[in-house]
Amino acid sequence: MGERPTAGVTIEDLRAELDAIDGRFLDELRARIEKCVEIGHFKREHDVPMMQPHRIGIVQERAARYGERHGIDREFLRKLYDLVIEETCRVEDRVIGGSS
């Protein structure tokens, strides 16, 4: 992962950079959930089942490969995606069920 010299950099500078990264991360997570809402509407309109186990496997495997390429623990990414997928399934289920 990217390491760099920290001469002249304060902990506040580094934390500000981290906060900016967190903001982008959360914006992307929100965008992902919004896309799942759109997918939920599509599934409802086209009578596509909400649960697509093969798709979940594809997403998790892609995350695992990304982790391997970038030195991020595979199990960490699996757990992270389990949480993300659980939430997006909940959101899609509400859309498909007509609650949203």
UniProtKB/TrEMBL annotation:
Annotated GO biological processes are: chorismate metabolic process; salicylic acid biosynthetic process
Write down the SUPFAM superfamilies for this protein, in alphabetical order: Chorismate mutase II
> Which Pfam families has this protein been placed in?
CM_2 (PF01817)
Among the GO molecular function terms of this UniProt record, one is: chorismate mutase activity
Q: Where is the Chorismate mutase domain?
A: 5-96
Q: Show the InterPro entries listed in the entry.
A: Chorismate_II_sf, CM_dom_sf, CM_II_prokaryot, Isochorismate_pyruvate-lyase
List the protein's name: Chorismate mutase family protein
